[in-house]
Specification:
Number of domains: 1
Helix content: 40-55%
Number of helices: 9
CATH class: Alpha Beta
CATH architecture: 3-Layer(aba) Sandwich
Radius of gyration: 18 Å
Strand order of the largest sheet: 3-2-1-4-5-7-6
Largest sheet: 7 strands, mixed
Mean pLDDT: 94
Shape: globular
Low-confidence stretches: none
Length: about 270
């Protein structure tokens, strides 16, 4: 089992390292509505310590800084050193909030127990390999009264980005570990139960967010280009045709993605 988890983690790190450039260029601005909903629900307060779990290129950390003010602190954690380098470069010294960047993962969060007021996880828990361990770790690092707010995509029937990525991904080799990726928390019931078992009061809400691509080619580059780059060209063509058939019959035209988004909210008693 350990070998499988290690292989899965190495595979994910490789994907996210390769994704860093396109993520910053194409994805961050499109995911901004999700971050806005996440932060609205988090209700950050001046002076709080925030853990941004799966910070990516730092968009959540940057937007959270205004909520915690100059006396607050943000610990930005990610498994990808390339993503963390992007976040460091973006944030620089321009923000009044104090930032710390740490390479790490949800199953072993690299901060002391009871040191965090708010854990934010924007579209990152879907990729966690051992979500039971992650639930325990989130509970461990939260202070009494601390809270978790996480966002995850719904399933392909309600979420265009998941339909796109799952369709394209069905032509790629099977990942080393099952149950991770877009749509993995479409039904968050099992994870809510794990949060409850870890001592948190947990619930889920659903909201809808949108973004747009001007044509199919741009969407493919941003959402599937990295993960399908190693496929034989003929297989790539089949994958593209399948996605277009399902959801983009006029590839030169713009398309709005309508995405049902789960907001997972939990609180530690105290």
């Amino acid at each position: 089992m350990t070998d499988t988890i290690d292989a899965g983690l190495a595979w994910q790190v490789g994907v996210w390292d390769r994704m860093a450039d396109v993520y910053q260029r194409e994805i961050d601005r499109r995911f901004a509505p999700v971050i806005e909903r996440l932060l609205d629900r988090a209700d950050l307060r001046p002076g709080e310590t925030v853990l941004d779990l799966g910070t990516g290129t730092g968009s959540v950390a940057i937007m959270a800084a205004s909520g915690i003010g100059p006396t607050g602190r943000i610990v930005a954690v990610d498994i990808s050193h390339e993503m963390l380098d992007k976040a460091r470069a973006r944030i620089g010294v321009s923000s009044s909030a104090r930032f710390e960047f740490v390479e790490g993962r949800a199953e072993a969060i690299p901060v002391p127990a009871a040191s965090i007021d708010v854990v934010l996880a924007s579209l990152s828990l879907m990729y966690v390999i051992d979500r039971e361990a992650a639930a325990r770790e989130i509970a461990r690092v939260l202070r009494p009264g601390g809270r978790l707010v996480a966002a995850a995509w719904a399933g392909p029937e309600d979420c265009d980005i998941v339909r796109f990525q799952q369709t394209a991904g069905s032509f790629a080799p099977t990942p080393p570990v099952p149950g991770v990726g877009p749509g993995a928390l479409a039904d968050p019931g099992a994870f809510l139960a794990r949060l409850s078992a870890a001592g948190l009061t947990a619930s889920c809400e659903t909201t809808v967010t949108t973004f747009q691509f001007s044509n199919f080619a741009d969407a493919w580059t941003a959402l599937a280009g990295v993960t399908t780059a190693a496929l034989d060209p003929s297989i790539q063509d089949q994958a593209k045709a399948a996605v277009m058939d399902r959801m983009w019959t006029e590839p030169q035209s713009p398309r709005e993605f309508r995405n049902a988004t789960r907001l997972i909210v939990a609180r530690k008693p105290g």
